[in-house]
DNA sequence: GTAATGTTTTACCAACCGGTCAAATTATCG
DNA sequence: CGATAATTTGACCGGTTGGTAAAACATTAC
């Protein structure tokens, strides 16, 4: 008898593990471009090189695939922020946070776009995670930044908007990649633009946050 | 005989003008949330308070509606950048550019999201406009910024990435509105957050770009 | 008023959509 | 090998989708 999906506490087959990963990869391609509504199971099955019923043997619904992708992204996406260390050197912490976020935009653009698509569409499937775990983490780190400002280690500024501005500037290179390429032109299309972006953002945030004694 | 749509050089009826506007408004609502593929004509017709065939009497295809919306947005979206004045005071010009972009994110969030959706999906319908008019305009303004830097009026920096960072930070408040609200909490939901954002971004960019004599 | 034009509705279509089912096929294990 | 469980397939279903055709209805111009 065929038990549809990791139903019981049974261990997962090698094939299951492999196919599920292939499906998730294909689904990431499709969802990150078309969003949830715009993506079809056929597209995903096609990209994964299998038939639709076969795909549905591993994931019961379209939503189940999306759910799993979103859960993964939500977790890994916040890694850099979690690594933010209250006891470290403020300037170095912010600098390395920017660099890490930029590296993620470069190395995981599909994940960034998947998330962007979900937020753009009103985040109907992850509202709770945003208002819960995400908000809590940001609140915590905002307090760290505020403490640094009070101690005179960085310029006084709104920590929430600082975080927003780091998110937006870095993710821009993944989410708006097409536009960035179009504006910079073909010659610039290489990975060199990421180094230029890193240099620029570093200068912007470091000088923008340095305590000025005028 | 019913001539489907402004076919000949005929003038448009009062009813045509009015209905077309109502359709475009409704379509903006739907497209900006669901993207092109995710949106349906039925949804748009519903939102516009008319039947689907009636809507299709004014716009022959779903793509025609989207096309017109995108064209409008592309034009108005670049207004602030066009207003960028080479002969003005550099600091004041950049400051007012930021403010204007932020006001647009506040006042026209649907337009911002429509554009973001299109870019996220690889900009299949506006690639030419990006590589043509958009790139030309940015090239021109980048040269202005570069000249300011050479003249020592602002800090030396990559003008393209400066423009990208202004775009991303300001549009973030429209495109990622749901996330911003979730993180800031209900109490902050009012328009106050736009003033806070304006203050923060002003500080960030002004201090980040000021010439430092260290 | 009436004829021409402009607008709206009703009924419809073929393609596509998410998902099911049962049968056929393949892998695993004793 | 044979039996059992896991995987794959093809045929199918009800609902949705973008779009059409033609007739009914409303508006305007004379």
From TrEMBL, chains A, B:
Keywords: DNA-binding. Residues 17-77 form the HTH tetR-type domain. GO terms for biological process: negative regulation of DNA-templated transcription. It holds the Pfam family TetR_N. It comes from Xaviernesmea oryzae. Signal peptide: none annotated. PANTHER family: HTH-TYPE TRANSCRIPTIONAL REGULATOR RUTR. SUPFAM superfamilies: Homeodomain-like, Tetracyclin repressor-like, C-terminal domain. GO terms for molecular function: DNA-binding transcription factor activity; transcription cis-regulatory region binding. Residues 40-59 bind DNA. Gene3D superfamilies: Homeodomain-like (1.10.10.60), Tetracycline Repressor, domain 2 (1.10.357.10). It comes from the Bacteria. This is Transcriptional regulator, TetR family.
């Amino acid at each position: 008898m065929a038990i549809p999906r990791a139903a019981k506490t049974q261990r997962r087959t090698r094939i299951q593990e492999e196919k599920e990963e292939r499906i998730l990869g294909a689904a990431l391609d499709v969802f990150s471009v078309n969003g949830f509504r715009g993506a079809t199971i056929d597209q995903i099955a096609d990209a994964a090189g299998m038939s639709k019923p076969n795909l549905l043997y591993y994931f019961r619904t379209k939503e189940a695939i999306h759910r799993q992708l979103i859960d993964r992204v939500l977790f890994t996406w916040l890694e850099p922020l979690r690594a933010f260390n209250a006891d470290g050197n403020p300037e170095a912490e912010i600098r390395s946070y920017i660099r890490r976020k930029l590296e993620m935009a470069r190395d995981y653009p599909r994940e960034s776009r998947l998330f962007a698509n979900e937020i753009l569409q009103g985040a109907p499937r992850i509202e709770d995670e945003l208002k819960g775990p995400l908000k809590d983490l940001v609140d915590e780190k905002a307090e760290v930044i505020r403490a640094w400002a009070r101690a005179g280690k960085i310029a006084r500024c709104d920590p929430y908007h600082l975080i927003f501005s780091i998110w937006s500037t870095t993710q821009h290179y993944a989410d708006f990649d097409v536009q960035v390429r179009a504006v910079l032109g073909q010659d610039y299309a290489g990975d060199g633009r990421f180094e230029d972006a890193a240099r620029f953002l570093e200068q912007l945030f470091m000088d923008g946050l340095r305590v000025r004694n005028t």
